[in-house]
Write a structure and sequence with these properties.
This protein has 10 helices and 10 strands. By secondary structure, the protein is α/β, with parallel strands linked by helices. It binds adenosine-5'-triphosphate (ATP) and magnesium ion (MG). The site of magnesium ion has 3 residues, from helix 1. This is ABC transporter.
């Protein structure tokens, strides 16, 4: 239990000695950390530190040259990102990745694709079954739309939405996959204060109401310190700090590399 009464469980994801190189660039150097069930785990550090690369390793998008990814107590073999997603991981991206011409509702529906059993062929053969399945999916999606308070824009093409709402739709799509672990790469970048407050509240509510474990990359230190249970600090591909917000705030190496200077 944390001081505010939330339940933190056993280790959900364990990153062990991860090293990732792009040609001559070592984006991640021998980093280990774990994420416990139910916690909000932040990853912070200066631009180019390797935070997004780490999330890409977690989601199976990049395969590290060295190291092991453990998930729910088992070593994860090399997998395609969609297979990783099926294991219960969903994410949002640093640069919004939505279908601009599609409605909010349809964009969120795509978040359920990993869970749909009926492929195109079976849909053609068993229209009834596919339809029943689609209705069930739609019901879940409507719940998420209510939860994130975006009912009034459900039919709006995403391309017409202001930035802050697009970010919220991206969160909705990730939630539609009902992930065990939700990974958010700078969900508040470019937002104004009010939008950040809304997004912070939604992240806390998701964690609280669905018990979703959350990994969060964020530059706004106020947000990180408020939301997270534990923080990993990266700098030039190395891990330079790991602990509670108070611990990393008082870590001299972290202050020198990151906290002491301004960031966007
Ligand atoms: N696909 C890629 N090919 C080559 N180099 C890459 C690739 N992705 C990342 N890098 C390099 O790896 C390093 C880490 O980049 P990464 O995007 O992970 O940093 P970051 O911590 O997310 O930074 P930011 O805060 O700016 O988003 C950088 O030097 C970057 O140029
Ligand atoms: Mg990044």
């Amino acid at each position: 239990m944390t001081p505010d009464g939330r339940r933190i469980g056993p280790v959900l994801m364990d990153m062990r000695h991860i090293t990732l190189r792009f040609g001559g660039v070592t984006a991640i150097k021998d980093i280990s950390f774990d994420i416990r069930e139910g916690e909000i785990r932040a990853i912070i550090g200066p631009n180019g530190a390797g935070k997004s690369s780490m999330m890409n390793v977690m989601s199976g998008f990049y395969v590290p040259q060295e190291g092991e990814v453990w998930f729910r107590g088992a070593r994860r073999p090399q997998m395609r990102p969609y297979q990783v997603a099926r294991q219960g991981l969903a994410r949002t991206f640093q640069n919004i990745a939505l279908f601009d011409g599609m409605s909010v509702l349809d964009n969120i529906m795509t978040g359920r694709l990993t869970m749909m059993k009926s492929g195109l062929l079976s849909q053609a053969l068993w229209w009834g079954r596919a339809e029943a399945e689609e209705n069930a999916h739609r019901e879940k999606v409507e719940k998420i739309i209510d939860f994130l308070e975006i009912q009034n824009i459900r039919k709006t093409p995403v391309g017409r939405l202001p930035y802050g709402l697009k970010k919220r739709v991206e969160l909705a799509r990730a939630l539609a996959a009902e992930p065990k672990l939700l990974m958010l790469d700078e969900p508040m970048a470019g937002m104004n204060v009010e939008e950040k407050e809304d997004m912070s509240r939604f992240i806390l509510d998701v964690n609280d109401e669905f018990g979703t474990t959350i990994a969060l990359i964020e530059h706004d230190m106020g947000v990180v310190m408020d939301l997270s249970d534990r923080v990993v600090v990266m700098d030039y591909g190395r891990k330079i700090g790991d602990g509670t917000p108070d611990e990393v705030r008082n870590n001299q190496e972290v202050i020198d590399a990151y906290l002491g200077v301004a960031h966007d």
